[in-house]
């Protein structure tokens, strides 16, 4: 792990604490100096009562000495000014020293959370992301900074965990077909009585496993490409119709629909949007394929498209196994199949995560509803072509209560 040290390699560093201390000392000494100068001017102008006496007036001092009034005034003013300057300078020096020391201590206490931020950041690594500042001081700017830093660490830790989970799941998904291929090859080669038919069977299994691995890799690449476009401009932005993508997906899954004897009902009104036609076709294809794949024999599928002044929508619903409403948001995460184990399940578990990424890239949203009796209804909403499409969006996945199947 590369560690970047932000500290300068110097004997003397103008730290923020030192700068604040010097600034406070300069302001304090400057204010004191202004007061001393102002007092000096006031004393010089106020202690001149002899100016109102007749020239030649003499005054008698306490020891009986007679001196000229003006001379006595001059000596008195000079003595007062000197006393003011000497004692004022000494007081200014003491107040400045105490003020600088106090400012150094106060600045240190105020900046202590910042030092804790630095220490916490230096301790962080890919394996230790649990350190937090947990500032409990006054509710000020420093407290806001500390809380913001803790929130950022929470997001980073969550992102790291998501990445680790994604890599682990992807490794598992890829390992399964590779293990199947290797096992089939080893078993067939170790069988001295294997004939052409056995080799054909082995070749068929290897082909199916390789197709599964290839489909998984393509899905991962599509997911990565789509997520890279989320929140910024799409590579292509042309007119497209969600209903067209539905028709293409229905044609591609026609054999499976017939095999399962599914009752398909469609209400395909024009749903014009602006975006990447390839990604939008994949969005519709994933929803239709999931509706077929996770259905049951003799089940139902219903598809609706439409638009208004601001939004175009695509609704795909299907019967099937029951889904816990609390598990609905999890379905949009990679390699999640709504409670089914990965082993032996059809598909890679990337379908809905790709749908969410495509929606996010087009500035839209996607939501799902778990149906009573089993099944799922997914609704995609995208900005209509009649308005300027958003450049970024958040594909919200709210938790919605169950409702009866359509």
Structure commentary:
Strand 1 and strand 2 form a beta hairpin. The two termini are 54 Å apart. About 4% of the residues have low confidence. It is built from 8 helices and 10 strands. With 406 residues, the protein is of the alpha+beta class. Helix 4 runs parallel beside helix 8 and helix 5 packs across helix 7.
Short description:
By secondary structure, the protein is of the alpha+beta class. The protein is built from 8 helices and 10 strands.
Task: Please write out the topology.
Layout: H1 16-46, E1 58-60, E2 66-68, H2 69-123, H3 141-190, H4 196-229, E3 238-241, H5 242-252, H6 254-260, E4 263-268, E5 272-275, H7 277-293, E6 300-307, E7 311-318, H8 351-361, E8 365-372, E9 376-383, E10 403-404
Parallel strand pairs: 4-6, 8-10
Antiparallel strand pairs: 1-2, 3-5, 6-7, 7-9, 8-9
Helix pairs in contact: 1-2, 2-3, 3-4, 4-8, 5-7, 7-8
